[in-house]
Amino acid sequence: xxxxxxxxxxxxxxxxxxxxxxxxxxxxxxxxxxxxxxxxxxxxxxxxxxxxxxxxxxxxxxxxxxxxxxxxxxxxxxxxxxxxxxxxxxxxxxxxxxxxxxxxxxxxxxxxxxxxxxxx
Length: 120
Description:
The protein is an all-alpha fold. The protein contains four helices and no strands. It has helices spanning 5-26, 28-46, 51-81, 87-115. Helix 3 (51-81) packs antiparallel against helix 4. The radius of gyration is 18 Å and the shape is flat. The mean pLDDT is 95.
């Protein structure tokens, strides 16, 4: 059964779920993002945001957490390949962190667009 098309997809989902749990258990940055996501979900219910606003908010949360996971993977690979300090490894890590920064700024802007009008 596990060698069938569906079986392989289910097995892949299991690995993805395991990876998500590993991130949540071991990475402080993902834990912070998860707490922010929960707060934003409560805010969405409290302010009764529209379906489109929910889609944008969920997209922003998913974007930040996904890029954060990729950043963690890049850092882990870099540390495994070259555990000592190296300028090129530092560059790679900085670029990966920069990607998270762009995603986080995007999420903040989306949050401002959704929630600022609720206060007026």
